[in-house]
Amino acid sequence: MAALQDREIAIRIFRACTELGIRSVAVYSEQDKMHMHRLKADEAYLIGKGLPPVQAYLNIPEIIKVAKDYDIHAIHPGYGFLSERADFAAACRNAGIVFIGPRSETVERMGDKVAARKAAEEAGVPCVPGTSGPVKDLNEAREFCDKHGFPVIFKAAFGGGGRGMRKVNNASELDEAFARATSEAMAAFGNGALFLEKFVERPRHIEVQILGDKEGNVVHLYERDCSVQRRHQKLVEIAPAPKLDLKTRDKMTACAVKLMKHVGYENAGTVEFLLDEKGNFYFIEVNARLQVEHTITEEITGLKADEAYLIGKGLPPVQAYLNIPEIIKVAKDYDIHAIHPGYGFLSERADFAAACRNAGIVFIGPRSETVEKMGDKVAARKAAEEAGVPCVPGTSGPVKDLNEAREFCDKHGFPVIFKAAFGGGGRGMRKVNNASELDEAFARATSEAMAAFGNGALFLEKFVERPRHIEVQILGDKEGNVVHLYERDCSVQRRHQKLVEIAPAPKLDLKTRDKMTACAVKLMKHVGYENAGTVEFLLDEKGNFYFIEVNARLQVEHTITEEITGIDLVQSQIHLAGGRLLSELGLTQDKIGIQGCAIQCRITTEDPAKEFQPDSGRLEVFRSGEGMGIRLDGASAYAGAIISPYYDSLLVKVIAQSTNLQAASAKMNRALREFRVRGVKTNIPFLLNVLESQKFQSGIIDTYFIDEHPELFHLTPSQNRAQKLLIYLGNLLVNGPMTPLGTPLAPAEIDPKRDDVPGGEPPPLGFRDILLKEGPEGFAKAIRNHKGVLLTDTTFRDAHQSLLATRVRTYDLLRISPFVAHNLQNLLSLENWGGATFDVAMRFLHECPWERLESMRKLIPNIPFQMLFRGANAVGYTAYPDNVIYKFCELAVSSGMDIFRIFDCLNYMPNMLLGIDAVGKAGGVIEAAISYSGDVSNPSRTKYDLNYYLKLADELVKAGTHILCIKDMAGLLKPRAAKILISALRDRHPDIPIHIHTHDTAGAGVATLLQCAEAGADVLDVAVDSMSGMTSQPSMGAVVASLQGSDLETGMDLKSVSKYSAYWEQTRTIYAPFESALTMKSGNADVYENEIPGGQYTNLQFQAFSLGLGHLFEDIKKAYKEANILLGDIIKVTPSSKVVGDLAQFMVQNRLSASDVLDRAEELSFPKSVVEYLQGTLGTPHGGFPEPLRSRVLKDMHRIEGRPGASLPALNMDALKVDLVDNFGRLVRDTDVMSAALYPDVAKDYFHFRETHGPVDKLETRIFLVGPKVGEEFEVSIERGKTLAFKALAIAEKMTKKGEREVFFELNGQLRSVFIHDKTAVQEVHLHPKAQKGVKGSVGSPMRGSVLVVRVKEGDTVEKGAPLIVLSAMKMEMVVQAPIAGVVKKIAVTPDMKLEADDLILELEPK
99: phi > 0 → left, psi -120 to 50 → alpha, else beta; which? Predict the structure, then answer.
């Protein structure tokens, strides 16, 4: 559903959609790109580019087009703009889109105020005297005024909101008022029509809300008073209308319903009346839409302090808030009459209540005697027994020592539970399952209770299995009256900390409720309880309940009781403390009822994925969820706030209220998804899993719910994309480029132009449609049967690999992809994947090659994709286990790959056969490629003669290839040789399609391709003109133009090719830092001598010049030729070409001739690639390895016989995935596992980068490479319909003590900042070392906190799970355990040391 509004109503609509499970879509004008509504929708799209905002939102054709393009089924017009335009409602209907509002006929009749007035008169509804239609001119206006007298009022006929309205007091004002109202109405509604009516003096403006359905049923939702206005603009609205006579209300609402039934009104609308001082009311208009003021049945309140004073100067925070004398002093000094203790700290301390009373200060809570009796859980238990309330077996007082605890356990058995005697909230509680756990549990619970409440006393009781935790809210007054406000279910707990609470308790038997609430009241009357308190029970599976404690204070979860009863508990506390009686407050039991259901979720700064470890730090971002039925109770959550480790981890409470548990859950779910909290971990992902659990939705929950549902911890982490991008951008601004740049040239500041394609229309049919229908064999037949020559475009891979160091990013490929799909559909294929692109994508571009493939496939569904596949090496540079090759092909096909150009760098058949089998089993098109070397037209070049190629072709055809390819990677195939080779292949294999790949290094590429075509080749590889030539492929435009009008015509449109070329011509300038043309000004025919492959030629030259060795490039080329002969005149293509190149550079650097290399082979330290090649890691070259060089280099080193990968054990992909999930989270995909299998280190570095810096592939290329300029504004589309607006603001000059600089941005109109470590700073900054990720013996701190105890010393031997240290944070203690068995090598912490998350604790050396 789309919302056509830029205001709060759009957000209201989106929230409703989320609760109903409907995808929401925002539209926005250019000027509104920073508005919040755009961020609240699932998707957002720009409309009216270049238009002013109002014109943009009134552009009906474009709105309908966006709806069609993005599969939008319904449009809510909000209010204003098109909400009362009948033509828009009709346009929606005609386009098959639901208009959320009245039918277009009703909009036309009622949205036009004149027509609405006529309908009111027909229905017998009283109307103010007015014109029967729009005023034609000033003469007609004067006649009306002469008849009815002044004052009168002009009103816009086609809109409301006070625009187009002018009161006229006398004749002298008429002309000006007419002109101004007409102009305003035209600007606001696109129509300047006005009508005129008598102005009613001193009226109240009353409107009645109605709803109607398709069967003619209409109801009213009572009235609103909108009389507080200025210039007819409503400022304050009240519902219901105060002091409205009930008879008048009945008549007015009846008239509203009668009118709307008369016109057959559907959906929401408002009937507006003027009410004069005598009680007469007059119809004025119908608003055939939702009104701004529809919200006033929703209510939100908040309080802030008028004054604030410091306490406990110099003390730690907890001690400061427990400093009773100073608190009393502040109260006396500043004339404070009462103190509300809140919950926690001193709220259950009897001595504090007594201190207040003795100082003449009202303590808002129970009397000190009651606090002492009930705040102490042991005393409370005794009182419950006296009152006849059932109790769980437990100690009669605090446990003195471990011996007394053991005696209790011997008597009652396990499990038991320790509880703090002087506080709650789950702190100081430990369940003990058996005797071996008793000592540790007693120590930890005592320590926690002391830290939290200033008293470590504990009591012990029998642990009730599988209970529900039910608590009853009570209020008591000074005369002993006590009432209950029903119960809350607090069973969703972890470690006795309540996480989610529900009121009333779902599926609680009514008889049990009555007994439980009666017991609660009886107990509190027994102790003479005053003020607010809670009686807590455990309810077992049989319906038996047991008293556990009284909380003699307000509870954190009191909010949900307020929502279902409508009673403000805090105000009630204050009134009761002031001496008022419950009856005076209207709080008698018969008047307290339940309405609906409420849920409270506590958003805490804890990480559920790490055992709910508390987190602390700076809130980089805080944005809350709001809307109807949502209440937020929080105080310390705002962007920039520091979350301290000293207090409870609660950040904010979210309360949702609705008609039942399921509806309240939907509201809560929606609100939590709106939250954006960055800088600290939160439990929001966990809470969402709880809310979506079927068991929770059913209301069948107990305190075991979390423990028994491990799927609740299958968390979908927040993507945090915007914040991660800010970190990346901040790094660029502080430290410079994060991907190495090759030249001093800067990226051009240009937005390459491209033609738009028809929105929402699928592209024309292409060859992929044939492939999907006929399969690989039918596809091959279609190629052979095709008249003319087909083309493969290499621009998306080999062209930029050859010219721009493989640096072209997915961003720029995707921008032109729709144009390619719609205009170049006659291409046989797009070569867009494999080869070096796979490695470079992760290593330098920080993007996923699989996502590149999948994204392109979505945009280009009609043209087959083609990849370069290195046989047994896949897309790597080494041999892999066979199962990796087969799995790679399977994943590639499922991700969108079609044609696999399978080659081997030595034409080694066993390697190619593996690739052919893997591709065939995966369902891909097999294009077996023979790598070309030598010169078949030169009789003296006998090693790679025509028979060599024909024999290889025979073997490949026999192996089952669908297409046969000649891969001329260095551009050695001369035109005459091409004719000889292709003619022979065509004669030998008349039914197999032949595909030609060459490079244009020598400048003869086009001539070669034309000869191939004449000789019978079916498909030619070309690059678009602006990315062709030199070491790239021959020009697409040149080949297309050369074959026009011949039998071999390509069927390509030359104009489309030129437009395609223009895009890449501009885009290429953005990649200036990698431009090969900086050093390579033209092609060079000496390639026929040195035989350097195209991409390698560029790279070797580029490296030579960048190292200041450009004058030696000729020597490198000469050495390359010699190195090739030394190695046996081998086929040269990655990775064998790298072997030759490495040897050539080795020779130049060490000034070695070929004879030097051969003579000194036994003493030289050769490059690793040369040694491995001679060992046989790439396979066996044609004619065998060169001797005696091989023997001299290898001496007694291991030699591989046969196919290198045949002896490799299968890779355990499952174990690899488990390892990746452990390190990078549950979102690891199978394609990520494959990336790690092929490039272990590169992939893991990329995953770390992605985790830290987010989707940098979505940044425009200039910004990605060098970052924005300070003051620059730019946008980033992170997914369909989600666009972020950035502005770089400033970099702090001063560095922090941690060596960081604060970088300021504006993100979506809001100020944001990030702290970036300055790598260039000369200041020495001492930082605590971090644990090494992925090294299990490197033990890091799981949270921010303080070291309490170090349990081991260096040299100790520990078993897995042994306690290492005890940490304390947020009053919770945690034992850090050994992740592996080993010896303590180094300890990096000491007691009381403050640690950040991931700080190194110690290092273990595995056993």
Answer: beta
Q: What is the C-alpha separation between 97 and 931, in angstroms, rounded?
A: 56
Q: Is 553 one of the catalytic residues?
A: yes
CB 76 within 8 A of CB 13: yes
Alpha-carbon distance 204 to 214, whole Å? 32
Q: How far apart are CA 472 and CA 104, in angstroms?
A: 53
How do residues 117-174 score in pLDDT, each as one tens digit?
A: 888 999 999 988 888 789 999 999 999 999 989 999 999 988 777 789 999 999 999 9
For residues 792 and 901, give the distance between their C-alpha atoms in angstroms, rounded to a whole number: 12
Distances (CA, A) of 783 to 90, 294, 789, 826: 49, 65, 9, 12
Task: Look at residues 977, 987, 903 and name the one whose alpha carbon lies nearest to residue 941.
Answer: 977
**Tokens found for residue 1303:** 């970088």
DSSP assignment letter at 1346: E
Q: Is-contact 1223 1244, C-beta < 8 A?
A: yes
Rounded Cα distance, 902 and 916, in Å: 7
Strands (E), 932-1034: 963-967, 994-997, 1019-1022
Nearest to 531 by CA among 585, 488, 609: 585
| Cis peptide, bond prior to residue 1167, ω within 30 of zero | no
Name the β-bridge partners of 26: 3, 44
**Residue 315 and residue 332: Cα distance in Å, rounded?**
21
Give alpha helix (H) positions in 1044-1200: 1054-1070, 1087-1090, 1094-1106, 1113-1126, 1136-1149, 1154-1159, 1168-1175, 1189-1194
For range 755-783, the mean pLDDT: 93
Instruction: Give the full edge-to-edge strand order of the sheet including 166-168.
Output: 166-168, 152-156, 194-198
Measured in degrees and rounded to the nearest 5, phi and psi for residue 881 equal -60, 150
Catalytic-role residue among 109, 166, 289, 553: 553
Q: What confidence tier does 79 reach under pLDDT thresholds 50, 70, 90?
A: confident
Q: At what angle do helices 377-386 and 510-526 cross, to 10 degrees?
A: 110
Give me the residue label for tokens 């039942």: 660
